[in-house]
């Protein structure tokens, strides 16, 4: 049963939407309620969690359930090759146009109330795999200092903080540092993505992560290169385990599976 406060909020929102109409930032239709999240209920309803079979380690969705028939713990071709350094990763939803648009609103247009919505979604994903997400601390993937000054905030940190509170864990946004900025090129190839983050993350001077179990948080898992690079920096500093949560997971097109992944040495 909805509370009296919730009912009053709905009524006030409906009245406010009549006098101060605003468009949904995803579809352009007028919002039917006044809310801090400028996305209509129809568009919010499209932000659905991933479903179906996937890699038991990184969560990469499989195109067909056939991939899981011969194994209780099926692995994607990347995890079979042992390229990822992190122990476990899951994403809330697929990187669809609607979820991508919502992430862009937070990342580039400072629609910060979306961070709590994303944190709540990741909380549900966490609960679905609680036994794999045993952690001591939540760490958002950092942005380079130049990008932080330009944007004024780290969107991954805005998501990580309310998530950490809901999980009863400390959020340590200062543990990791991005020491090298992302290339200016707008679109990177698969190989360029891996090269651009290799060795780009370090532990902040004076910080210790000895034997800590880390939960990394980011907005999108595209190739996994960023999470891999962060995990390598954390493990090199002594972290015992690294798991990761992202809001979205990019689903590769069929032809992208033929791309050659970079060879990884012991230091990434």
Can you lay out the helices and strands and say which pair or pack?
Layout (H helix, E strand, L loop, with lengths): L3 H16 L21 H5 L31 H4 L7 E7 L2 H13 L3 H16 L8 E4 L4 H7 L3 H13 L8 E3 L11 H8 L3 E3 L9 E9 L3 H12 L4 E9 L19
Parallel strand pairs: 1-6, 2-5, 5-6
Antiparallel strand pairs: 3-4
Helix pairs in contact: 5-7
Characterize the structure shown.
- This protein has 268 residues and is α/β, with parallel strands linked by helices.
- It has helices at residues 4-19, 41-45, 77-80, 97-109, 113-128, 145-151, 155-167, 190-197, 225-236; strands at residues 88-94, 137-140, 176-178, 201-203, 213-221, 241-249.
- The protein has 2 domains: 1-45, no CATH class; 48-258, Rossmann fold (3-Layer(aba) Sandwich).
- 35% of the residues lie in helices and 13% in strands.
- It has a 4-stranded parallel β-sheet with strand order 1-6-5-2.
- It is globular.
- Residues 13-19 and 255-268 have low confidence and may be disordered.
Name its key features.
globular; four-stranded parallel β-sheet; Rossmann fold; alpha/beta; 268 residues; 35% helix
Please provide the ordered H/E string of secondary-structure elements.
HHHEHHEHHEHEEHE
Secondary-structure class: alpha/beta
Query: What is the CATH architecture assignment of the largest domain?
Result: 3-Layer(aba) Sandwich
Kindly provide the radius of gyration, computed on alpha-carbon positions and rounded to a whole number of angstroms: 20 Å
N-to-C span: 53 Å
Strand content: 5-15%
CATH topology of the largest domain: Rossmann fold
Shape: globular
* Count of discrete alpha- or pi-helical segments spanning 4 or more residues: 9
Number of domains: 2
Largest sheet at a glance? 4 strands, parallel
| DSSP strand count | 6
Low-confidence stretches: 13-19, 255-268
Overall pLDDT metric: 86
């Amino acid at each position: 049963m909805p509370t009296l406060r919730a009912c009053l909020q709905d009524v006030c929102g409906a009245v406010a939407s009549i006098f101060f109409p605003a468009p949904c930032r995803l579809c352009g239709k007028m919002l039917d309620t006044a809310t801090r999240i400028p996305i209509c209920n129809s568009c919010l309803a499209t932000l659905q969690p991933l479903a179906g079979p996937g890699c038991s380690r990184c969560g990469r969705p499989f195109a067909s359930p056939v991939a899981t028939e011969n194994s209780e713990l099926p692995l994607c071709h990347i995890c079979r090759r042992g390229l990822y350094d992190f122990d476990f990763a899951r994403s809330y939803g697929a990187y669809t146009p609607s979820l991508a648009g919502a992430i862009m609103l937070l990342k580039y247009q400072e629609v910060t109330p979306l961070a709590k919505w994303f944190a709540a979604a990741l909380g549900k994903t966490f609960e679905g795999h609680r036994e794999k997400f045993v952690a001591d601390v939540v760490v958002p993937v950092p942005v380079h200092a130049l990008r932080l000054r330009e944007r004024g905030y780290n969107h991954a940190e805005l998501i990580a903080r309310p998530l950490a509170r809901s999980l009863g864990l400390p959020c340590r946004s200062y543990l990791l540092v991005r020491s090298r900025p992302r290339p200016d090129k707008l679109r990177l190839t698969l190989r360029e993505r891996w090269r651009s983050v290799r060795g780009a993350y370090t532990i902040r001077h004076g910080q210790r992560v000895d034997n800590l179990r880390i939960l990394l948080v980011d907005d999108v898992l595209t190739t996994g290169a960023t999470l891999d690079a962060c995990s390598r920096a954390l493990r090199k500093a002594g972290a015992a385990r690294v798991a990761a949560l992202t809001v979205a997971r990019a689903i590769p097109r069929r032809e992208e599976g033929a791309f050659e992944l970079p060879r990884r040495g012991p230091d990434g």
